[in-house]
Amino acid sequence: MDRPLKVFSGRSNEKLARSIAEALGLPLGRSTTERFANDNLFVRFEESLREADVFIVQSLTPPVQDHLFELLMMIDAAKGSSAHRVTAVIPYFSYARSDKKDAPRIPITARLVADLIETAGADRVLTMTLHSPQVHGFFKVPLDHLSAETVIANHFATRLEDLERAVVVATDAGGIKRASAVAKRLDLPLAFIEKERLSDTQVTARSLVGEVEGRIALIIDDEISTAGSLVKAAETVLDAGATSVYAAVTHGVYVGPAIERITGSPILEVAATDTCAPPEPLPEKFKVLSVGPLFAEAIWRIHRGESVSELFR
User: Fold this and answer.
1) Which is the catalytic residue, given 195, 232, 285, 287?
2) Which regions of the chain does DSSP assign to beta strands (E)?
3) Per-residue pLDDT tens for 196-211?
4) Are 109 and 218 in a shared domain?
5) Is 195 in the active site?
6) Assessment of whether the complete model's pTM goes beyond 0.70
């Protein structure tokens, strides 16, 4: 049976959901989300889902709890409407940072959220660049974990004329694998910064491993939140002799003072994909890279029962 493929969007990033649907040659599915006077959310699908292969696009961006609960309600409504399969498409899974019990009397929230998504009825999950890859293991349903490294590498390859003078820099040891993938695609050397996190919004650089003197530094990270880590990394490589600094991340969350910090920093350009809906208008030094076609290809492969991993060979 050739089941109908349907793509719907929560309220967190409808623009990305529309680009995914357009790349698939489909109209974005019709749904409604309302908030009652008592602050309760209400969701409704405005078309039949019977026996359909349903994909619900929702990033866990601020307000995170509203967007998470809207996603859970949409999953539950789709299952209750006789959808054949429901896939939660979560381009940005913000709770991936809460992946371990590293202090007394705290929850492992990433695991809790995974349990909630499964309990709501999701048959599988599609996401991108988890801050902690081990979160993959918290899901008992199949999870496809996409990577934005190809998109980022292609951006730098077309953006810089003197790319051979560049070095790829990871903002910490945990990001070496991610930065290494970009460096390998661009055939560039790799460096990384040893840092110490003082709080959720404060970091300090301890040392720089690798040669950046006389080179263009391309800083790679998984996300920008308040931009404290990114600006500190830029200052570190410039102090070590880098001639200029560019940066690219998968998730441009841009909370608090992030835009102002980056605008006032020596970074020449910051590129982020559209997993998070970017604030508008963005200053000139900010670039948005679309991952809509990549998600569309992954969704098509899942729908057809084909390999998703082949996208990254």
Assistant:
1) 195
2) 5-9, 31-35, 41-45, 53-57, 85-90, 124-128, 143-146, 166-170, 190-197, 203-209, 216-224, 244-252, 269-273, 286-289
3) 655 555 556 568 999 9
4) no
5) yes
6) yes
